Amino acid sequence: MKKKIALVTGGFTGESVVSLKSAEVVARQLDDRLYEIFKIFIYPGDWYHLTDGGERVSVDLNDFSLTINSEKIRFDGVFNIIHGSPGEDGKLAGYLDMLDIPYTTCDSLTSAITMNKAYTKAIVASIDELFLAKSFQLMDGGSETVERIVRELAFPVFVKPNNGGSSIGMSKVLEPVDLAAAVEKAFKEDAQVLVEEFVDGREFSIGIYQMEGEVIVLPATEIISSKDFFDFEAKYTAGITKEITPGNMTEEEVSRVNRIAKAVYQRLNCRGAVRMDYFLEKGSGRFFFIELNTVPGQTETSLISQQVMATGKSLQEFYTALIEGMWGG
Q1: N or C: fewer beta carbons within 10 Å in the chain?
Q2: Could you say which residues bind Mg(2+) 1 here (predicted)?
Q3: How far apart (Å, rounded) are the C-alpha atoms in residues 188 and 184?
């Protein structure tokens, strides 16, 4: 008998548009010989499924179920592809845990911690061979705080919402005179802001997942943007960014970053597929941690998709592994 899988998409933030695109790809690639897929749209106060006939069916939030043609449908598991809240920040995971419904992504604690860039950096700070750019976590944007950053950080700096995604609200600040405006922009997206020193390096992103108890690191993607940094436009507009998979690293660098990636995955108690972004500093060859994404994009051109295909594995095989991993398979 096919297992019933809820493919959840949408979300409460501006990243919902990316989530919808990811869900379209996942829905096409999931093995319909093994699974019966129900796409569930989750928006504030509005959780629903659209039947093949276009009927809108509300989700019963008491048990996360649907009733279609008088049949009560309960799910064996959830494929979570919601970027941002509530799929990536732990809210959905906590709800599903209370209902004892397995899901493909990290648990509620890991999801909540990794949404906070500053907290994540604090946890991974002691990992061997991994370096962190000097930074400040801001709870307010007062003039005294801005003045302290100018005194203690070397410019240029990156200013970003501490709990944001897809680089929304992020700025690269070259001169102190522009810092206050960038901080104000970031605070429009979040109640906390992270300011980090610029690392002069090449940018990479690497996927990590677990299958049958083994942590597997995918080939890294090198990101070469025609813009100053990999912002929202660069991530989702064709032609602005060149992505090379596998990225250009020496055998020693590949071996080293794989050790780091596994250590980060285990230190943060990750589950499912995550993506670690990092810099390879020019000159020193040191790896600098940027952030961890626990619900990475899954469009056909997304970094994780490119990395999976570079191993010779199909997306269908990969998604099957993620689903079966919910039950320890």
Answers
A1: N
A2: 277, 291
A3: 7
